[in-house]
Write a structure and sequence with these properties.
- This protein is 47% helix and 7% strand.
- The protein is of the alpha/beta class.
- A hairpin with a 2-residue loop joins β1 (76-77) and β2.
- The relative contact order is 0.14.
- The model has no long low-confidence stretch (mean pLDDT 91).
């Protein structure tokens, strides 16, 4: 009896600690509270969150099997599922009803398809290759570029206009069906091989959610379902492909960008009506290279530290052929799902991803 009382007391103490820790961490990381700090302060805070969360992790690992699905599958908005913590029905609704302005450039993708990469290309392009995300500049991408449907960045109201031609760079994972549209704004969409998207999403989810994330089979089931955050990959591709005929929409593929980054920079320059000279384009290309960004990943990490993220690296591989990391069974399942979902649609799957189209 005594041991039971001790165990209950310890659990209550741990849950009280978790509640207090969560309140404190939320205050430190809400919106751009974390991202606008100097790099040294961010590193200290990240290490502190990692250290102070260690007593909580064993308890969460114990309850993970019975709470995992409730944490993972969030409420829906207009039929689309939002990730919890940084998104909700309320943030989705506010973003959906936002009225775009002429200075807005939307960078849209499904998750893990090159979002931060394109944000950097646009940022450096409008800054003519002289952008500065260091302590003496804009400090961080997410202190500069608002993630419109999320609370995980600078707010839309506080986001700075950057560049000689003042520009608001807006990140979104919205499908075309939800993305706010205005013919005066600009939209750049990047699509990545669906299996590469899955493989990269698995790594990201594990680092962000720790033991609360479903196992790999659960993630595969989620990816090939209506519960995929922001909608299934094929629906995303189809919706934005139909938008590409609009003059203010640029549709790019991740793999083509990897093959010819300078060419992608040129397309962005022309699309945004900039007049970068050869040296400026070269500088934008250099500062948008994967290795250049990885060496400065303190400027680009996508989310503030969590209970489980620790001090891990934000950039993982970023390779063109990330789909090769999935098992044959996983690839076949995703290929079949995309083929069936895109049957009769307009997106030319066989043209861009013949391995998916052929099975």
């Amino acid at each position: 009896m005594f041991l039971l009382e001790v165990a209950v007391a310890l659990l209550l103490a741990l849950f009280a600690y978790l509640a207090a820790f969560t309140r404190w961490a939320t205050r430190q990381t809400h919106r751009d509270e974390y991202f606008r700090r100097p790099v040294a302060e961010r590193r200290v805070l990240k290490a502190r969150i990692d250290r102070w969360s260690r007593p909580i992790r064993p308890v969460l690992e114990l309850i993970a099997p019975i709470r995992r699905d409730k944490v993972f599958l969030m409420e829906k908005y207009e039929g689309f599922t939002a990730p919890g913590g940084i998104c909700s029905r309320e943030t989705f609704a506010a973003a959906h009803h936002y009225k775009p302005r002429p200075e807005d450039v939307f960078v849209a993708t499904q998750m893990k398809c090159g979002t931060t990469w394109m944000q950097q290309i646009v940022y450096e392009a409008v800054c003519r290759g002289r952008g500065n995300l260091g302590d003496d500049g804009h400090r961080h991408m997410y202190a500069t570029s608002p993630w419109i449907e999320s609370t995980g960045s600078v707010s839309m109201e506080d986001a700075p206009l950057v560049g000689e031609k003042p520009t608001r760079i807006i990140k979104t994972h919205f499908p075309a069906a939800l993305c706010p549209y205005d013919e005066r704004a600009r939209y750049i969409y990047v699509l990545r091989h669906p299996v590469s998207c899955f493989a990269s999403s698995v790594d990201f989810m594990k680092s962000a959610m720790g033991p609360m994330v479903p196992d790999r089979q659960g993630l595969l089931d989620w990816f090939c379902s209506e519960n995929m955050w922001w909608g299934p990959w094929p629906d995303h591709a189809e919706g934005w492909w139909r938008w590409r005929e609009r003059e203010n929409v640029l549709f790019l593929h991740y793999e083509e960008m990897k093959e010819d980054l300078a060419g992608a920079v040129g397309q962005v320059n022309d699309f945004l009506g900039l007049d970068l000279d050869a040296s400026e384009r070269a500088l934008v290309t250099e500062k948008s290279d994967y290795l250049w960004m990885k060496e400065r990943q303190d400027w680009f990490e996508m989310h503030a530290p969590t209970l489980f993220s620790g001090s891990g690296a934000f950039f993982n591989k970023g390779t063109r052929n990330r789909h090769e990391d999935a098992s044959p069974g996983e690839s076949e399942r995703i290929h079949r799902f995309c083929r069936e979902r895109l049957a009769g649609g307009e997106y030319p799957l066989a043209r861009f991803y013949p391995d998916v189209a052929e099975g």
